[in-house]
Design a protein that fits this description.
6 helices, five-stranded parallel beta sheet, alpha/beta, nucleotide-binding, cytoplasm
């Protein structure tokens, strides 16, 4: 049984993230979507809000679960018995960053393999930061994020969060 983890900040989760999760769940027996909590990083949503949105997004997939994590990803992989770390890629810049990170992770835990999964082409321009910026100016993000996320983003901006 091969377990995989797909970590990220998911602030907010996008259709690109969902695409990677959906494809990974068809390959691996169990997929843990790991919401990384980093108190140093400024985020729009709390870790719990991101967790709740992702749980709603994957609720129909029995082999996918969402977890919060405030440790190194490779340490978390060891805790849950995962041998694969999935990293979504949109472009060569993502690859360069993720490749360097995978080398560090391999040093920290040689038992965990990193698998790079490019997003489907229709999602390659979806960056959480660009989605937040578009939403801040009243742009329509409904084609970029699941409905639960679009509503949460709209609610944040209507409450004065910038």
């Amino acid at each position: 049984m091969v377990k995989a983890i797909f970590p990220g900040s998911f602030d907010p989760p996008t259709n690109g993230h969902l695409n990677v999760i959906e494809r990974a769940r068809r390959i691996y027996n169990e997929v843990f979507v790991v919401v990384a909590t980093n108190s140093e990083k400024k985020t729009m949503f709390t870790p719990e809000e991101r967790y709740d949105m992702l749980c709603e997004m994957v609720k129909d997939w029995k082999n996918v679960s969402v977890r919060l994590c405030d440790t190194l990803v490779v340490e978390y992989a060891k805790q849950v018995g995962a041998s694969v770390l999935i990293r979504g890629l949109r472009n060569i810049d993502d690859f360069s960053y993720e490749f360097d990170l995978s080398m560090m992770n391999k040093t920290l835990n040689p038992d965990v393999e990193t698998v790079f999964m490019p997003t489907d082409p229709k999602y390659f321009v979806l960056r959480s930061s660009a989605i937040k910026e578009l939403a801040a100016y009243g742009g329509d993000i409904s084609s970029m994020v699941p409905g639960v996320v679009a509503e949460a983003v709209k609610k944040k901006f209507s409450s004065g969060i910038r």
